[in-house]
Amino acid sequence: ARSVRDVGVVAMPLLSLALLLGSSSAYVLTPLHTTRSAGRSSFPVAMAATIDAKTVKSLRDATGAGMMDCKKALVDCDGDMDSATEVLRKKGLASAEKKSGRAAKEGVIETYIHTGAKLGIMVEVNCETDFVAKRPEFQELAKAVAMQIAACPTVEYVSEDAFPQEWIDKEKRIEAASEDLQGKPEQIIEKIVTGRVEKAMKAKLLMNQPYIRDPNMSVDELVKSYVAKLGENIKIARFSRFTVGGSLADEPEE
């Protein structure tokens, strides 16, 4: 007869096999583990988690993660879709950070013309290889970024790195001279000025904006989710906004 220890050893390969060969209708995982008490082994305790295949597919469609990663996340979260999504998102963001230093010199230039043809956007989105640049998912991201820029008229720069220091210095001088700050201690003034300038900067930075299709996600997080999905570094290089008559705004009327 097999001992409890033998059963525990056999259980783990069976669990791995169940993960790989789950039926088309559901994945039933029954890991067995043993506990020891006072030098004795207790009987195996079965812990079952039934994950519907449709749920796994839904999570994969929502996150872009692999099937095995989706199954594992759902099992770890007892089938809770929101918790599993959060686990995969954090995993994807961590993966994106590791790839951020890699060169991204391929990509596409995407355009978006808003209804009525009064507003147009042109944006360059880069990746590492031409293979990824041609994938529908990458082009989908580029289109989403172009539409995001069209929906955010205050946005002028991709990220803080592109922000001109001259503008920051000028805004600090203007805010420091505000009437409501006069007579306050220097340290308080500096703290308030910094907060106001940072708030004004965020309104002009593309990567800081809430994604228009999911306000719980920033544009930066959106891009990183595609880095995790496609396995390459992705960067938004630059963009231009065109409005009918916009180039004439500063010219004197005749």
Automatic annotation (TrEMBL):
Q: Which family, according to the similarity comment?
A: Belongs to the EF-Ts family.
Give a single Pfam family match.
EF_TS
This molecule's function is given as:
Associates with the EF-Tu.GDP complex and induces the exchange of GDP to GTP. It remains bound to the aminoacyl-tRNA.EF-Tu.GTP complex up to the GTP hydrolysis stage on the ribosome.
Superkingdom of the source? Eukaryota
Q: Which HAMAP family does this entry report, sorted A to Z? A: EF_Ts
Q: Which UniProt keywords apply?
A: Elongation factor, Protein biosynthesis, Signal
Q: Where is the Translation elongation factor EFTs/EF1B dimerisation domain?
A: 105-245
Write out the GO biological process terms: mitochondrial translational elongation
Q: What is this protein called?
A: Elongation factor Ts
Q: Which PROSITE patterns match?
A: EF_TS_1, EF_TS_2
Is Protein biosynthesis included in the keywords of this UniProt record?
Answer: yes
InterPro entries of this UniProt entry? EF-Ts_dimer_sf, Transl_elong_EFTs/EF1B, Transl_elong_EFTs/EF1B_dimer, Transl_elong_Ts_CS, UBA-like_sf
Q: Which organism is it from?
A: Coccolithus braarudii
Query: GO cellular component terms?
Result: mitochondrion
What are this entry's molecular-function GO terms?
translation elongation factor activity
**Signal sequence range:** 1-26
